[in-house]
Design brief:
Helix content: 25-40%
CATH architecture: 2-Layer Sandwich
Number of domains: 1
CATH class: Alpha Beta
Bound molecules: biotin
CATH superfamily: Bira Bifunctional Protein, Domain 2
CATH topology: BirA Bifunctional Protein, domain 2
Number of strands: 11
Number of helices: 5
Order of helices and strands: EHEEHEEEEHHHEEEE
Distance between the termini: 21 Å
Amino acid sequence: MRLGEVDSTQIEARRLADGGAPEGTVVRAEHQTRGRGRLGRDWVDEPGSALLISIVLRPAVEVSRLPQLSLVAGIAVAEALGETSRLPVAVEWPNDLLIRGLKVGGILAESSIGADGVAVVILGIGINVNQTRFAGDLQGRATSLAHQAGHPFDRERLLAAVLERLEAWYRRWVAEGFGPVREAWRRGSVTLGRRVTTDGGAAGIAEDLAEDGALLVRTDAGALVRRVATGSAP
Ligand code: BTN
């Protein structure tokens, strides 16, 4: 479904999912008036220049695996953007896409369990494609593909690449588990070896990605603490 202006594609996709929309239904908008990010943050776009999509997924996996989906999508989108733009796109735990340290996109996976016990995930992806100016506090933190490459990109081509990589990684994750995603993530992430804070607010170094997708943080006090990607409930 392709929309012009919408409050949030997440809301639209959730409405469709509640009405029985099948897995793989994609909602796309040119502009969002109430785009949302993780942890209740806003997601602001420049009309007509971003890629704003939400996809209905009904993954037949254990509920405990659902937080891994942000990482699956991160790897898939980073691959698609990197291959299409030839820019160095990296993932930052849990859901950011970066180019040269600046945020070019983000992923929001909102999960719920239906009355039938099957999970429904609305996977939201926002990518700054052709935006050339970043105002206010976005300056120095955000970027776009065009800003980094010095020329605009065809959003249709990018969308096709994103959906293709996403489908491939998603199917692999469902069929084979988290192992292949974990290996790709360890190679393509800028997080490992960096200083981060734990959920409890302690400082430490991101040491590894656990076999279930949690970030393993070695605190300054020497403890190994698990950090799980949260903030994914609608
Ligand atoms: C984040 O970095 O915090 C996640 C941002 C996710 C933004 C996308 S844009 C399409 C979809 N609709 C929304 O309202 N949010 C997601």
